[in-house]
């Protein structure tokens, strides 16, 4: 969308200003554009979710947020091999995105009850549906015409030229305009994934740090510091619940590479039972991954000479024969 | 409207780029439905061109799949409406094939639970409207999923299994226990009792029974068994609850107590000031007042009356009409039942109670269920406080005497102090916990599933998370008891990964004979 086209719409937006809330998705004024460019994190219960494809793409490519797709895939919904939007992200990822100013955490409000804005939105939705029907109708007619035209061309190029057949096709082509009907049931409609502009637009509110849906305790603080440090070092991280750890650490994009490490986040003075340690070390070697014990340094302990924010120790089960 | 360019331009501008244009919608009818295959993963990135192009190709496919929007023909969509007050989705056009396994009818309207509606939205089968506007999937997730309906984690498990083809429906925690079901207790769940009613009216056997009415001795027994059959598999008919009542009858008949003969109103069937709540949707407490429901006075059978007065209609399901009951025939019926017990069952019954419950004088003094339950409770608390007095009172003896055992097995049984523990055996009354509950019934995909008669589930599910605690033995036992003869599976959700665990009893093999 270039500048020339957007100019008139800015004006029309100003006319509606305040009265129509649905006009917020593709606004052209600079502030709104900026707001639109930040990633929206919507919480479902306490789980942070990304809904817009553009957000998901931006997060993966620019911030290295991988997450897990948890919805049914639009193309083939009844399978579990490849899933689709929404993308569930880790609490740490959500926090990093928000703290770096790349995203806004939004709280969902109850569906809007405002009669005035609703009736306007309904009107708009119906108008759009009607418009879409007429356009699809025209497209279907074009499509049919193109098919008949092609048949006619083939007939003409045929060596055994049959005038009668060609004539029949020509007649059909001519009568098509009048007889063509496009049933309403054949119209295609989109089932939106992310909240769409014409929808009721519940007022979403940015979270204040105090209402973050997950309490921030020592453990989440430890996990966050480890996450940040590993991310900074260029690793890709996903959840490692199935391996009994905190993160799976990948050297490259998880789509193409195997994870190398199972990261376990511990504070410096945390006591880990020896059987837990043995179990995870043994499990790690069985799945051909190295177990990493990751402990963030206390800021007071950290001397001038140590640059490292987090101390990593690897753990390998090795039998000496 | 579409023809005028001035109007269509702002319309186009107002929507996010995720809204498809008409031509995109039209083209999507010839969309490819194949999912590209991902190749083998590599170990280390080495910055080679080949790796880069490979990654780019995979990413491109990934984005294509993620960005794709659902497009359906209007004719293939079922329209529905979200009713937030009831937390239900009501259909506005006839249901599709999914009706075989999902949804229910309420007052002639086809309804879907929010999780079912959301799953069908994801499959592109249903379009849900709220106040004339279609809901996006995001709005569906945000409005449908909550602690009062189904949580996000529970929905993840639900949709995971649905995508695999399993039939999944809610487990009703308000469903009475096996014991209560067998006592012909009313169901607090309105919907279920409705279902029962319908079944009753449809069953031709029942109508026959009703017409024959009192002349047939089966009427009262049939009424019981019919009710049970609709709820539990027939095999469990002879479970403790019913046996106990039958025994109680028998005992009273044999030794008819002169006092009870005279006692007025001691009747199971009538004089109940019931306060039925037919239309309350909330989980209600049992509306039977147990202090007013007396044991059936079969003891007076010998003396004054030969028949029981008709039962209070409020205690019966639906349009049932039961007139007074001839006890002589019923009595015969009970005895017949007793003869059908197998040796094993009798043995089990004896083990369970130690002795015949009717030999117990204090039990016989109980006049109604409340008194009986109080007695049981009192005894239990006494047992808990009891000190092991026999240590001091009795002579200390070895567990096994020489020459008393003829085989290794017998010897082992004698010195076996700690009995092996059966998850389902003791019907202890564990207090239920709020955190742990069974959420779903799961049925296998290949079976011919019928909503009206779902049968025995393949398994029952409890949903938990790696972030939360691990179920302890108390929870395991409580949920297994609640699930009775169906196995329990624990579905653990971790950031989109769903894994299933089940705790099974294991009998250590004994190889000494």
UniProtKB/TrEMBL annotation, chain A:
It is found in: Nucleus, Nucleolus. InterPro entries: tRNA_endonuc-like_dom_sf, tRNA_intron_Endo_cat-like_sf, tRNA_intron_Endonuc_cat-like, tRNA_splic, TSEN34, TSEN34_N. Residues 1-34 are annotated as: Disordered. GO terms for biological process: mRNA processing; tRNA-type intron splice site recognition and cleavage. Residues 23-34 have a biased composition (Basic and acidic residues). Signal peptide: none annotated. Pfam families: tRNA_int_endo, TSEN34_N. The active site is at residues 250, 258, 289. Residues 39-105 form the TSEN34 N-terminal domain. tRNA splicing endonuclease is a heterotetramer composed of TSEN2, TSEN15, TSEN34/LENG5 and TSEN54. tRNA splicing endonuclease complex also contains proteins of the pre-mRNA 3'-end processing machinery such as CLP1, CPSF1, CPSF4 and CSTF2. PANTHER family: TRNA-SPLICING ENDONUCLEASE SUBUNIT SEN34, TRNA-SPLICING ENDONUCLEASE SUBUNIT SEN34-RELATED. This is tRNA-splicing endonuclease subunit Sen34. The lineage of its organism: Eukaryota, Metazoa, Chordata, Craniata, Vertebrata.
Automatic annotation (TrEMBL), chain B:
The keyword Nucleotide-binding does not apply. One of its GO terms (biological process) is tRNA-type intron splice site recognition and cleavage. One of its GO terms (cellular component) is tRNA-intron endonuclease complex. Keywords: tRNA processing. InterPro entries: tRNA_splic_suSen54, tRNA_splic_suSen54_N. PANTHER family: TRNA-SPLICING ENDONUCLEASE SUBUNIT SEN54 (PTHR21027:SF1). This is tRNA-splicing endonuclease subunit Sen54 N-terminal domain-containing protein. It comes from Hemibagrus wyckioides.
């Amino acid at each position: 969308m270039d500048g020339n086209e957007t100019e008139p719409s800015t004006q029309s937006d100003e006319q509606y200003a305040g009265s129509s809330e649905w006009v917020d998705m593709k606004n052209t004024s600079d502030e709104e554009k900026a707001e639109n460019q930040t990633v929206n994190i919507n919480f479902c219960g306490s789980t942070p979710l990304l809904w817009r494809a553009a957000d998901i793409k931006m997060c993966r490519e620019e911030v290295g947020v991988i997450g897990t797709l948890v919805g049914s895939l639009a193309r083939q919904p009844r399978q579990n091999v490849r899933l689709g939007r929404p993308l569930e992200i880790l609490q740490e990822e959500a926090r990093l995105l928000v703290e770096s100013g790349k995203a806004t955490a939004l709280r969902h409000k109850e569906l809007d009850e405002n009669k005035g804005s609703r009736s306007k939105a309904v009107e708009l939705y119906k108008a759009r549906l009607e418009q879409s029907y007429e356009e699809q109708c025209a497209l279907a007619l074009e499509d049919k015409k193109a098919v008949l035209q092609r048949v006619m061309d083939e007939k003409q190029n045929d060596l055994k030229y049959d005038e009668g057949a060609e004539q029949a096709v020509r007649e059909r082509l001519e009568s098509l305009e009048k007889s063509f009907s496009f049933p309403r049931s054949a119209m295609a409609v989109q089932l939106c994934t992310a909240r769409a502009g014409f929808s009721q637009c519940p007022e979403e509110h940015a979270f204040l740090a105090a209402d973050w849906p997950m309490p921030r305790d020592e453990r989440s603080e430890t996990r966050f510091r480890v996450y940040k440090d590993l991310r900074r070092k260029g690793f890709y991280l996903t959840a490692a619940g199935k391996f009994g750890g905190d993160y799976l650490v990948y050297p490259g994009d998880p789509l193409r590479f195997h994870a190398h490490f199972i990261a376990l986040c511990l504070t410096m003075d945390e006591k880990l039972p020896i059987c837990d340690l043995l179990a995870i070390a043994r499990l790690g070697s069985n799945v051909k991954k190295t177990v990493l014990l990751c402990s963030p340094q206390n800021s007071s302990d950290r001397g001038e000479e140590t640059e490292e924010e987090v101390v990593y120790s690897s753990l390998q089960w090795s039998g000496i024969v | 409207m579409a023809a005028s360019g001035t109007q269509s331009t702002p319309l186009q501008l107002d929507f996010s780029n995720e809204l498809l244009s008409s031509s995109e919608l039209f083209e999507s009818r010839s969309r490819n439905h194949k999912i590209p295959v991902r190749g083998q993963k590599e170990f280390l990135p080495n910055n080679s061109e080949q790796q880069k192009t490979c990654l780019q190709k995979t990413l491109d496919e990934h984005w294509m799949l993620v960005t794709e929007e659902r497009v359906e023909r209007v004719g293939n969509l079922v329209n529905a409406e979200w009713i937030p007050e009831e937390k239900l989705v009501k259909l506005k056009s006839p249901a599709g094939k999914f009706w075989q396994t999902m949804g229910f009818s309420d007052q002639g309207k086809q309804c879907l639970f929010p999780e079912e509606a959301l799953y069908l939205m994801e499959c592109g089968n249903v379009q849900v409207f709220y106040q004339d506007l279609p809901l996006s999937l995001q709005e569906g997730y945000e409005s449908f999923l909550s602690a009062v309906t189904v949580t996000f984690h529970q929905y993840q498990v639900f949709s995971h299994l649905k995508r695999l083809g399993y039939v999944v429906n809610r487990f009703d925690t308000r469903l009475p226990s096996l014991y209560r079901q067998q006592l012909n207790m009313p169901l607090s769940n309105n919907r279920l009792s409705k279902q029962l009613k319908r079944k009753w009216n449809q069953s031709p056997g029942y109508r026959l029974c009703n017409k024959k009415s009192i002349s047939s001795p089966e009427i009262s027994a049939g009424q019981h068994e019919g009710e049970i059959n609709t709820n539990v598999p027939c095999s469990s008919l002879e479970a403790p609850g019913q046996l106990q009542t039958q025994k109680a009858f028998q005992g009273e008949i044999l030794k008819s107590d002169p006092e009870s003969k005279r006692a007025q109103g001691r009747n199971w069937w009538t004089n109940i000031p019931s306060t039925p709540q037919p239309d309350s949707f909330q989980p209600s407490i049992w509306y039977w007042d147990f202090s007013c429901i007396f044991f059936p006075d079969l003891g007076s059978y010998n003396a004054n009356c030969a028949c029981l007065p008709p039962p209070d209609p409020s205690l019966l399901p639906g349009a049932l009409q039961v007139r007074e009951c001839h006890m002589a025939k019923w009595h015969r019926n009970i005895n017949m039942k007793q003869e059908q017990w197998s040796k094993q069952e009798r043995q089990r019954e004896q083990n369970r109670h130690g002795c015949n419950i009717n030999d117990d004088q204090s039990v016989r003094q109980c006049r109604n269920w409340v008194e009986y339950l109080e007695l049981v409770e009192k005894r239990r608390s006494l047992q808990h406080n009891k000190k092991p007095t026999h240590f001091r009172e009795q002579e200390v003896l070895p567990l096994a005497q020489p020459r008393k055992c003829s085989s290794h097995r017998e010897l082992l049984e004698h010195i076996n102090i700690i009995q092996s523990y059966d998850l389902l055996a003791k019907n202890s009354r564990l207090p239920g916990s709020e955190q742990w509950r069974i959420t779903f019934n799961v049925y296998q995909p290949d079976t011919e599933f019928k909503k009206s008669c779902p049968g025995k589930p393949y398994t029952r599910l409890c949903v938990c998370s790696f972030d939360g605690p691990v179920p302890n033995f108390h929870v395991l036992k409580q949920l297994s008891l609640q699930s009775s003869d169906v196995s329990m599976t624990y579905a653990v959700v971790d950031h989109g990964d769903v894994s299933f665990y089940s705790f099974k009893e294991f009998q250590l093999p004994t190889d000494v004979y």
